[in-house]
Every structure is written in C-alpha cells, then in structure tokens.
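Quick one before lunch.
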Amino acid sequence: MRVGIPGGLLYFRYGKLWTSFLQALGAEVVESGETTRSILSSGVSKAENESCLPVKVFYGHVLALRDKVDAIFVPRLVSVKKGTHTCPKMLGLPDLARAAVEDKVPVIAPTINFQEGMWANYRAVYSLGRLFTRDPLRIVRAGLEAWSEHRLYLERLTLGLDHRSALKGETEDLLCEGRELRIGVIGHHYNVYDTFTTMSLLDRLSSMGVDVVTADMVPEELKRRELRRLPKDIYWSYEQEVAGAILACTRYRLVDGIIFMISFPCGPDSIIRVLCEQENRRMGGVPMLSLVIDEHTGEGGFLTRIEAFVDMLRRRKGIASEVREAVAV
Ligand code: SF4
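Model of the iron/sulfur cluster complex:
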C-alpha cells in the first residue's frame, strides 16, 4: 500500500516516527516533501479562508498527495500530554484532509489522546498496525523501532540541528556555534523549521553570523520551572513548550534577543504572545520581536525587520560591553 504523509504541521515533530512505523510494517511511504510555492497556492485557494497559514499549507500538502497514493495518513492528536489539549484546528485535521481529497482516497486517522490513558493509545497504534499486518509481534517491533528513531530525531533537535539535518541524521551544520550574537527563534515546529514559509530564516540568520537557539534547545527542566511560576496552567500542549522556552530564555539570558514566530491568525499564539511579552517586560528581559506571518508576507519587509533587529542587538551588545569595560576601569 502506498501511504502518503503530508509534510506540514505535525510532520515537523512526528514525521520520523510515522514514516519509520509505516515502513517497518511494509507500507511504501510517499511524502509530499518540502513546502513549495505551488503547494502553498493550492492550499490557500482551496482551504477555508479563516484557517491559519500552517493549516492552509497542510491542505496544499494533502492535495499534492491526492493522486499519488492509496491512502493518506493524518492522525488525530487530541492530547499529547495529560491535562492538555492540542489546538482545535489540529483536532480537525483528518476531517479537513477528507474534505480536501473528496473521498477519492481513504484517510487513515488513528486517534491519540493522553487524556484517556496510555492503553487507549496503544490500542489505537495496534489497530493501525493491523491495517498492514496480522502479526502482532511485527507491530510491536515496528512501534519500538519507530519510537527509538523518533527519540533520536528529537535529541538531534535539542543538540542544535535543524529539522532537515536531524531527519537526515547529519551532525554538522549546528545552529549554535559559539558566535558573538545569539538569538532565540521560538515558535511551533512548523513556524520555525518550514524553510518556505519562514523564508529560510534559520539559514539567513546563520549567514548573518548569528547563533540560533530554538525551543528544542532550551533545557526541559528550565521550561518546566518557568511554567510552574505562571499563575495558571497553559491549556495547549505545544503552547506550553513555546511559552516555557521564551520565559526560560528571558529569565536566564540564554540569548541576546528573541524572535517569536507566529502564523496568522493563530488564537493560542496570540494569547501566549501577550503573556510572554508581559512577563518579559516584568523581568526586564531581552528584546523580543514577534513576527506574524501569513501567505501575503513579502520577503522584502520580512528581511528588513530581521536585519533591523539583528543590527539593534549588535549595537546594544556593543554598547553594553563598552559600559561594562568603562565600569571595570
Ligand atoms: S496552534 Fe495556531 S498555528 Fe497551529 S494549527 Fe492551531 S491555530 Fe494554527
């Protein structure tokens, strides 16, 4: 069976897990690949106008696979951590994919929900495996193999590799190489690692001689500590990660400045943005640039803002070190 995996949204987090699992079960996996202009255009023209940019991009990826595969894999991730939920738009992805393919291709959509306990998830994965094989041991082996591949992928991200290098298992091209200026580029995986929609932001910062710190590179314990300080728990799983990373970067001065990547119109991010900006100001933290992107964002304006931010941080750092030297004298 040829199974298509759309290369948008949660692919940036779980793509390795899904691909490894399906391949180990004998499926031929067809990926839609990186986002391109035509994928974006078809998603934008067909998806609901109110959708956020990543959902439109995802729609385009599904359409790109429609005539090439026997089924499309779009799991429904309801909750990936006890006590939290994913964003409502992610909950509806399988339905959106079905609407996109107009029932021409079946959509395989196992439900993962940590609110219902681990056994419900194991059962969902097992039922998925049964679509490909009747051998229970093969399903278990495929699951274990895929999980270890997934852990390895996430570990590479924490070490400072970007999504593409981590997928390929390359160990060069670290985002952080001990350069003078260090900027946190924080946001959802798809808002940070999609080279097309972010206009190669990570590569451009690297070529400007800037070290990049992503949310993955911020130690988990620091993120958790920051979340515990908040008066209320954050309800959305992935927003917890984003807010924890921004607040940890701010409190412990892990970076010289933060670029918060947001897609328009994202409800959860707009709330987290206000929270993080307020906390950042209260802590007297680091300069923060919230960049909201959508399908109309022009490359010129986008780059001008990045360059101005980098220049400002360079000047600020230069001035700060001059003041320190003067005080020391
Ligand atoms: S979290 Fe925001 S950007 Fe992500 S799918 Fe939901 S609305 Fe879209």
